[in-house]
Amino acid sequence: MRVHIADHPLITHKLTVLRDARTPSPVFRQLTEELVTLLAYEATRNVRVAPVQITTPVTTTTGVRIDEPRPIVVPILRAGLGMLEGMVKLLPTAEVGFLGMVRDEQTLQPTTYAERLPADLSDRQCFVLDPMLATGGSLGAAMEFLFARGAQDITAICLLGTPEGIAKIEEQVGDRDVTLVLGARDERLNEHGYIVPGLGDAGDRLYGTV
Ligand code: URA
C-alpha cells in the first residue's frame, strides 16, 4: 500500500482553520471542498490517460485525455459527500457511485446500508472519499465492498488519519493495489473513537448538526 501524507503549507493552513472549533459550517464546507481538490491533485497522479491528437492555433500535437472506462468516485455517506464537489471539479468526467456504511451496534462491525455502484469494477480506477480515517473500520469495509465487486485499483482520500487507522488498512489490504492520500497524519485515536487533535465529527461540522 502506498501512503501519501500531504506536506504543503496551503493544505496545513486550510486544515488549521478546519480544525478550529469556531469555524462555522459554511466555511467548513468550503474548506473541505478546497482541500479535496488539492489532495485530488496527488491522488490522480496515476489516473489512466490515452494519447490524443489535437490541433492548436499553431500546429498539430499530441496530448492526453482521461481514458475509458471512466474512473469512479465513491463518497462514503454521510461525511464523504462533503468531499464530492471538490473531487469532481478536478475530475469532471468521472462517474459517481455511493456507499453508505453504518456500524452495527451489536457486532460493532460496519455494514453497508446503501449502495449505488456498478456490478463490475474490475477495470475501473476507484477513488474513495472519507474525511476521517479513525479506526479504519468503515474505510476498510468500504474497500472490501469494492474488492468484492472486482476493484483492483483503489485510492482513498482522507482529510485526517491516525497511525492506528493507517496500520489497520495496511494490514487488511495486504499486497492489493491501494493508495491512501491524507491531508495529515494526526497523533492518535481517543477512547471515544475521535481523532486527536482532529476536528470533531466531520459530518456534524459539515452539516451543522452540532
Ligand atoms: N469520525 C469523525 O467524524 N471524527 C473523528 O474524529 C473520528 C471519526
Automatic annotation (TrEMBL):
GO terms for cellular component: cytoplasm. Belongs to the UPRTase family. HAMAP family: Upp_B (MF_01218_B). Its cofactor is Mg(2+). Pfam families: UPRTase (PF14681). Binds 1 Mg(2+) ion per subunit. The magnesium is bound as Mg-PRPP. InterPro entries: PRTase-like (IPR029057), PRTase_dom (IPR000836), Upp_B (IPR034332), UPRT (IPR005765), UPRTase/APRTase (IPR050054). Uracil binds at residues 195, 200-202. Keywords: Allosteric enzyme, Glycosyltransferase, GTP-binding, Magnesium, Nucleotide-binding, Transferase. This is Uracil phosphoribosyltransferase. One of its GO terms (molecular function) is GTP binding. Allosterically activated by GTP.
